[in-house]
Specification:
The chain is mainly β. It has helices spanning about 1-25, 370-400; strands spanning about 35-45, 55-65, 75, 80-85, 90-95, 95-100, 105-110, 115, 120-125, 135-140, 155-160, 180-190, 195-205, 210-215, 220, 230-235, 240, 245-250, 260-265, 270, 275-280, 290-295, 300-305, 310-315, 315-320, 325-330, 335, 345, 355-360, 360. It has three domains: about 1-70 and about 365-400, no CATH class; about 75-145 and about 290-360, no CATH class; about 155-280, Flagellar hook protein FlgE (Tick-borne Encephalitis virus Glycoprotein, domain 1).
Amino acid sequence: MPFRIALSGLNAASADLRIIGNNVSNASTTGFKKSRAEFSDVFATSNLGVTSNAIGTGVRISSVSQQFTQGNVGFTDNNLDLAISGQGFLIMNDNGTNAYTRAGALGVDRNGFVVNNQQQQLTIFQADSSGNITGATGPLKLDRSDIAPSATTKIDVQANLDASATPPTAAFDPTNASSYNNSTSLTVFDSLGSPHLNTMYFRKTSPNNWDVFQYVDGNQVNAGAPAGETLTFDSTGSIVAGTPTSMTFTPAGGAAAMTVNVDYKSTSQFGSPFSVNALTQDGFATGRLSGIDISDTGVITSRFTNGQSRTLGQVAIATFNNAQGLRQLGDTSWAETFDSGAPLVGAPGTGSAGLVQSGALEGSNVDLTEQLVNMITAQRNFQANAQVITTADTITQTIINIR
């Protein structure tokens, strides 16, 4: 009997060493979670149960449990890399079957889908055409086609006109700087996305009254042409007339005719030098995909070369009531089981789901120092059980030699 008991101890210590060896070998594996051996003693039983003075019959491994503690987060140069800070798993679609992982090393395949090294597709909450996150889930696909241009329909002017300025004496001429007081410019876009230079000339005509001349590509286009539009201010410097106005023109190159509303309601006339606080318009040219940004709540936004952005979706995070019950699949991924319970899928930062870090990867949670100490302990256990066999053999040999 001592031989069998010691043999169970040898097997348990050997299994413990294998588990430790697996932990050590994956000390640098992204998203890896260390395991530990859990042992229980073994007693011989009868129909009446175990007697109070029974001697145990050895040891067995009752469980090999994974420790889902947080690994260190290291930053990378790839915006698509994702690390989870807190609980939860990324959901990867493998030909219709979900796998769950903490390894967020992601890239783009030839079809534009965001995938990991096993070509499993990242699952996200989809966004509609307006950029609103919906409850529907699906793969993240990057659309590399050009974004359509949008023609300018509105210009907002926030400027201050100098109340102490002197009205020019010369007739207005855009080529004669002495015929107007100030000017400013911005670019507007037609229906084809072509840029056009829009210049505004401000000319004081009398106290509290100014004329504004709008020119696009050197041609006057404002509603008051050729006299220009009139802006009137009260004694406090606030505008009282002349806003909003509009300009209509047909750009060259085959684009549609344009009607642009110009809003001066935030323009003032104070006794300080001319200044432009804001000058904005709502059009933009065509643009190509230039980058992807992912917020800590998992919202995925694509950036385009024309300064526009588009919401593509939101990363989906799965949590489980019993993560210990997940089945290991290899490649640092797990599968749902009856013991784990069904996945609870939500956005990062909601419920028990952790936040995500873009451009980062979660490292292994293996502590090498701890594992080396455990290795020494397992080695001593193995040696001690081997010594039990040696001692039992000596005793048995002594008994055999009795004459």
